[in-house]
Write a structure and sequence with these properties.
about 375 residues; Endonuclease III, domain 1; Nucleoside Triphosphate Pyrophosphohydrolase; 2 domains; about 15% strand; binds iron/sulfur cluster
Length: about 375
């Protein structure tokens, strides 16, 4: 970059005048910034805003989040998807309380060692919260850099990502962290991301309105629509599952999911199926493990469901209880319209409830309408 000081001046002047007013931008509170940054990973700004307000109402500081039960944190996150983010944030809050007296650490090594904190989160929280000159790199920033330099680099390729991080380091204003007053490092990072979200967009970048047009090699060479190179798509994995909906007096039997995906969320008992496998046997075995005896019928209903790169087809079965199951920690009856707090549901469970899991379930539909639908996410870019 030939004129880095000129680029910084132009971009910062534009950002100060034109940036969107977003709730986390009024704050220097590192906890609030941290929550926003975790929420914005894989989630669009418009989707995150109401969740952010509700989450902070419920858990206004690190101590409140650390004290909360895992289920309550996941319930506050329900609908945003990518629940590992919430689990890590919750664990990290516990570490902050135990090891840092409840204050988000400003030391990069200490903050980087917290669960769920990668290089992006480190740079975002410490620059915006403490004014430390640490860069960020997300999809928006990578796209801006690729176009400014007219180099076909993609954040998804490790060697390219290293080059992009190097450039982010070089462009970061050399400032010391200010105790008060303007936060140049935080503003710079936000300005880059804002430019990518609002002007230098993935398709049809608005070069005519761009504050750094004069510094942009892609624009000078007419390459803005070709850069960065289109990502090669990750192969979609097709997955078959079956779940069994067991109703008793308007209550649905749910169990806690285990394993990396959706761990800790509740949904009707289910199994993953091999290609061509008939669901009845594996479902009966799963119920047996849970101490439940029920007569199984295939309702014929199929739900399509997508989680990251997995395209999941779920067979919906119905179970008629042979006898009342024993009380177990891994089982819960989901009561509709009781006003009691619900456990955190998977998006599939919410959908099954919202639409009525079987034709017999119409009586519980009305009570299920308040369940949130899964948030729309973008994997191409961190925020927009
Ligand atoms: Fe992006 Fe166009 Fe601005 Fe270059 S001039 S940074 S391509 S919006």
């Amino acid at each position: 970059m030939r004129d880095a000081p000129g680029l910084r001046r132009a971009l910062l002047a534009w950002y100060r005048k034109h940036h969107r007013k977003l709730p986390w931008r009024d704050s220097r509170d590192p906890y609030r910034i941290w929550v926003s940054e975790i929420m914005l990973q894989q989630t669009q700004v418009a989707t995150a805003v109401p969740y952010y307000a509700r989450f902070l109402d419920r858990f206004p500081d690190v101590a409140a989040l650390a004290r909360a039960r895992r289920g309550d944190v996941l319930a506050a996150w329900a609908g945003l998807g990518y629940y590992r983010r919430a689990r890590h944030l919750h664990e990290a809050a516990g570490v902050v309380v135990r090891e840092h007296a409840g204050s988000v650490p400003s030391d990069p090594l200490a903050f980087a060692s917290l669960p769920g904190v990668g290089r992006y989160t480190l740079g975002a929280v410490l620059s915006m919260g403490f004014g430390q000159p640490l860069p960020v790199l997300d999809g928006n920033v990578a796209r801006v850099f690729s176009r400014l330099t007219a180099v076909p680099v993609s954040i998804r390729r490790p060697a390219d990502a290293r080059r992009l991080w190097d450039l982010a380091e070089r462009l970061m204003p050399r400032v010391s962290a200010p105790a008060r007053g303007p936060n140049l490092a935080g503003e710079w990072n936000q300005a880059l991301m804002e430019l990518g979200a609002m002007v230098c967009t993935p398709r049809a970048p608005r070069c005519a309105a761009c504050p750094v047009r004069g510094h942009c090699l892609a624009h000078a060479r007419g390459l803005q629509d070709e850069l960065p190179p289109a990502p090669s798509r990750r192969a979609v994995e097709r997955v078959r599952r079956a779940v069994v909906c067991i109703w008793d007096r308007g209550r649905l039997l749910v169990t806690k999911r285990e394993g990396a995906l959706l761990e800790g969320l509740w949904e009707p008992p289910g199994v993953e199926l091999a290609r061509g496998e008939v669901a009845r046997g594996p479902l009966a075995a799963r119920l047996d493990e849970l101490g439940v005896t029920a007569r199984l019928t295939d309702t014929g209903r199929r739900e399509r469901h997508t989680i990251t790169h997995r395209d999941i087809t779920v067979e919906v079965w119905k179970g008629a209880l042979a006898e009342r199951p024993p009380r177990r920690a891994r089982l819960a009856w989901l009561e509709q319209g009781s006003g009691r707090p619900r456990p955190a549901l998977s998006a599939l469970a919410a959908r099954l409830l919202a639409n009525g899991a079987t034709p017999d379930d119409r009586r519980v539909r009305a009570g299920a309408r308040t369940l949130r639908r899964p948030a729309k996410v973008s994997s191409a870019s961190r925020r927009a």
